[in-house]
Amino acid sequence: MLNTPSSTPLVPPVHADGVSNDEFRAAMSRLAAGVVLVTAHEPQPDPQGPSGEDVGMTATSFMSVSLDPPLVLISLREGSRMDDLLAEQPHWAVSVLSESQGHIAGRFAMKNRISDRLLFEDIPYERGVASGALLVRGALATLECRTEQVMTAGDHTLVIGRVLTAEMPGGGGDGGPLTYFRGKYRRLG
Q1: 170 contacts 159 by C-beta, under 8 angstroms
Q2: What angle do CA 178, 61, 179 make, to 5 degrees?
Q3: Disulfide check for 144: which of 8, 25, 62, 128 has CB 3.0–4.6 Å away?
Q4: Residue 97 burial by CB count (10 A; 0-12/13-18/19+): exposed, middle or buried?
Q5: Which is it for strands 91-96 and 71-77: parallel, antiparallel or unpaired?
């Protein structure tokens, strides 16, 4: 089909390097990833006001970077609430979700969602001593981090954090890890 001013292209736009957004998304969906909940506590600017707000975000782009020193990396959509918060707040936490915690992942992955306060309401958690961020009970592992380095990568911000605490609460949660594959939360096995 010829592209004329009156016709609409039938194929998705292609980047200069030759791959479309849809092709790239489809290829990357074949890579299974672990699922984590990233949390941070946004302090209240007014010391006389409430204690601040807890913020959470589901992520599948999380990895260890270094053993010495212990570093991890999280990828955040540029301009997201968590991206904006971590630009100001250096302390944050990660809860590695178990296969029984898919409802938590889904809840914090929603766009245009209600207040995070309401999303945390019925989730059992503890507050981290090093970060002040919420740590999900029953997670396979929890880590508290302090931002060491931030860099822009395309439409995302890569945040490298030094791990301040790492725990396997209550024996490491129920069952195996929650994974994300081909656009859905899955269980191993």
Answers
A1: no
A2: 15
A3: 128
A4: buried
A5: unpaired
Read off the tokens for 17: 């390097």
CA 1 to chain CA centroid, Å, is: 42
Q: What is the pLDDT of residues 23-48, one digit of tens each?
A: 888 888 877 789 999 999 988 765 66
Residue 56 and residue 37 in contact, taking contact as beta carbons nearer than 8 Å: yes
**pLDDT, average across residues 168-174:** 64
How many Å apart are CA 159 and CA 73, to the nearest integer?
6
- Residue 42, Cβ neighbours under 10 Å: how many? 17
CA distance 120 to 104: 9
The owner of tokens 């191993």 is 188
Q: What is the pLDDT of residue 21?
A: 85
Per-residue pLDDT tens over the stretch 94-114: 999 999 999 999 999 987 776
CA 143 to mean position of chain CA atoms: 13
User: Phi, psi at residue 123, to the nearest 5°?
Assistant: -100, 125
What is the phi/psi pair of residue 13, to 5°?
Answer: -60, 145
| Helix, strand, coil shares, percent, the chain, to 5 | 20, 40, 40
Report yes or no on whether pTM surpasses 0.70: yes
